[in-house]
Design a protein that fits this description.
The complex is a heterodimer.
Chain A lengths: L8 E10 L2 E11 L4 E5 L6 H8 L9 E4 L2 E2 L4 H6 L1 E4 L11 H11 L4 H14 L15 H13 L5 E5 L7 H17 L3 E6 L10 E6 L2 E7 H8 L4 H9 L3 H4 L1
Parallel strand pairs in A: 3-8, 3-9, 6-7, 7-8
Antiparallel strand pairs in A: 1-2, 1-4, 4-5, 9-10
Helix pairs in contact in A: 3-4, 3-5, 4-5, 5-6, 7-8
Chain B lengths: L1 H13 L8 H21 L1 H22 L17 H30 L2 H6 L5 H29 L9 E6 L17 E7 L8 H27 L4 H16 L7 H7 L1 H8 L2 H13 L2 E3 H22 L5 H5 L7
Parallel strand pairs in B: 1-3
Antiparallel strand pairs in B: 1-2
Helix pairs in contact in B: 2-6, 3-4, 3-6, 4-6, 4-7, 4-8, 4-11, 6-7, 7-11, 7-12, 9-10, 11-12
Classes of the chains: A alpha/beta, B mainly alpha.
Chain lengths: 251, 331
């Protein structure tokens, strides 16, 4: 198998507990390159813990996590070089300009000087914010700030992009633009994307879906697989039946 | 399992796409982290002024008031009677470093609650390198504050004396002074080198820099360790009360220790075991062109200890954060 086909992310048999509380139970999933995979789960399903393990905030004690083939525990440097993340909470400096934020992030990956500046311009173009390069982040709208975060996570040209509930708190227009940008990146950059959300309407019919519930993977496949497994006609009902929730909770 | 095995082979072929992290990458990373800290500080003018006003209030009001009350006898490194303002200046410099360190640890607790700390930690560089770079960024900010303070003090007429020779000062066991373990009864002062004539008048401002960096690093690593232990911002006010004020007041920053000893032998012992006292003394001697060897050893030892504790706390496999489920918390 060559680099062309190595999955962007492989999670294999990972469990994790905080004390006696088992947050993840034998979780396995794969994000192939150039695909948009939705990690679907209600609040408290274990999505953020999974992200913390993939980003090596703490070690996975059981199982294996590989980013483009690199084990995050054994080869953290190589793995993290190929990983881009947008965390749930904002991680950019409101008082610095867009470019300054991006240059800082480039530095965190050992990229400096002209190369970094060139990449910053390129990244801002990708998210459609070139005209705001010198503005302070504080002056941006919520959706624009999210797009800066995406630009930031692209600076080191990762193979895998993780996004933890990236549309929380955004209005419908900004949400659509953020989703649209990430989907176009999947096609243009061969990026593997793992998009964590609890919002079923962010799933498009062609996406891969992983349903995580109470620390377990209930289903991993395509949208038709999910509908079929639940025996329903539409994915909203399917998600509800799989997770055993009522209308109000899943909305 | 077959997927995992096959991807391992692919990994080897793909390694070339991202460069190995060599010295120039490390340098770019270090520069970027320090640059961001300084830039953020310069954008927060209120923080700059409050950082400057605090020691100046002490210097102008407290010290002026106490000048008559507190006589300072001739203790090293002083060779003649000094004004109380001159005695207290190194303590106030150390206070700037202390507040700055605690403030940056406060920002780290805050950073943890937002995503900034996590952004730092997903960098591919070794975590210890990232944390030390961040600490040195904090020290750079502290140096800006210290020199602004020293500039105002200079205008007020308080400055280190001209220095003609750099000296090593090895501690003695006099009750007036600090050492925890002192068998030597007299100070041993060794000349190291002569200062070129043109530099003598401002040499103290240069010799103090290494002391400031070491002290800043020690207080920063203490704060960093604390930031990993504190769960939430709300706990931090308590830490200010339980760490900053006791550390500052039970030290040689505000009064010579022989004075403390006269009023309370117990407090005197506490001051001797307070690492902050040695920070103050290291800075005090450095301003006079002298290296206080015992203080240097103690401060370096504490730095190593606190830094190791902080790196351990942030280590993904062993650390406190892993056990607890932070930073950013939540499942």
């Amino acid at each position: 198998m060559s680099r062309e086909t190595a999955p962007a992310l492989v999670v294999d048999g990972v469990s994790h507990s905080f004390g006696s509380n088992k947050v993840l139970d034998n979780v396995s999933l794969t994000v192939p390159q150039s695909t948009f995979t939705v990690l679907l789960g209600l609040n408290g399903a274990g999505k953020s813990t999974l992200f913390a393990l993939v980003t090596r905030l703490y070690d996975n004690i059981s199982g294996e996590i590989r980013i483009l083939g690199h084990d995050v525990r054994r080869r953290p440097t190589e793995a993290l070089q190929r990983l881009g993340v947008c965390f749930q909470s904002k991680a950019i400096d409101p008082d610095l300009s867009l470019t300054q934020n991006l240059l800082y992030h480039a530095a965190l990956h050992g990229i400096g000087g002209r190369d970094a500046k060139h990449r910053a311009i390129e990244a801002l173009e990708k998210v459609g914010l070139s005209d705001k390069a010198g503005f302070k982040v504080r002056t941006l709208s919520g959706g624009q700030a999210r797009r800066v975060e995406i630009a930031r996570s692209l600076m080191h040209r990762p193979a895998l992009l993780l996004l933890d509930e990236p549309t929380v708190g955004l209005d419908i227009g900004s949400r659509e633009s953020v989703i649209g940008i990430v989907r176009s990146l999947v096609q243009k950059e061969r990026l593997g994307v793992l998009w964590a959300t609890h919002l079923i309407d962010e799933v498009s019919p062609t996406d891969n879906v992983v349903v995580l519930h109470k620390g377990k993977v209930l289903l991993s496949g395509t949208v038709p697989d999910m509908v079929k497994a639940a025996g329903t006609s539409d994915m909203r009902d399917a998600f509800r039946i799989l997770t055993g929730t009522t209308h109000a909770e899943a909305a | 399992m077959s997927v995992v095995a096959a991807t391992a082979a692919a990994a080897e072929a793909e390694l070339a796409t991202h460069p190995k992290l060599g010295p120039s990458q490390y340098w770019a990373c270090f520069k970027g982290i320090v640059w961001r800290e300084v830039l953020r500080f310069l954008h927060q003018t209120e923080r700059f002024f409050s950082a400057l006003v605090r020691p100046l209030v002490w210097l102008f009001i407290f010290a002026a008031g106490f000048r008559q009350v507190l006589g300072v006898s001739i203790i090293p490194p002083y060779q003649s009677y000094v004004l109380y303002e001159e005695f207290v200046a190194p303590g106030l410099v150390a206070m700037i470093l202390l507040f700055n360190a605690m403030q940056s640890s406060l920002s780290m607790v805050y950073d943890r609650e937002t995503g900034t700390m996590r952004t730092l930690l997903v960098s591919p560089f070794p975590r210890s390198f990232l944390l030390v770079s961040k600490l040195l960024g904090g020290v750079a900010v502290a140096l800006l504050q210290v020199f602004s303070f020293l500039a105002v003090a200079y205008v007020w007429g308080i400055s280190p004396p001209p220095i003609d020779t750099l000296k090593l000062f090895t501690a003695y066991a006099s009750p007036d002074w600090l050492p925890i373990f002192g068998a030597i009864t007299d100070p041993i002062i060794t000349d190291v080198m002569r200062v070129p004539a043109f530099m003598q008048s401002f040499a103290g401002y240069i010799t103090v820099i290494p002391a400031l960096v070491i002290v800043g690093l020690m207080l920063g690593s203490l704060a960093l360790f604390m930031s990993s232990v504190i769960k939430q911002l709300e706990n931090f006010a308590g830490v200010m009360n339980f760490v900053i004020f006791p550390m500052f007041f039970a030290s040689s920053a505000l009064y010579p220790l022989w004075r403390i000893r006269e009023s309370s032998p117990m407090l005197f012992e506490i001051c001797r075991f307070n690492p902050f006292s040695y920070c103050v003394e290291l800075i005090r001697f450095a301003l006079y062109g002298q290296v206080d060897v015992v203080s240097l050893i103690i401060v370096l030892g504490c730095t190593a200890f606190f830094l190791a504790a902080a790196v351990y706390a942030y280590n993904p496999s062993k650390g406190l954060i892993a056990r607890r489920g932070g930073p950013g918390g939540g499942a």
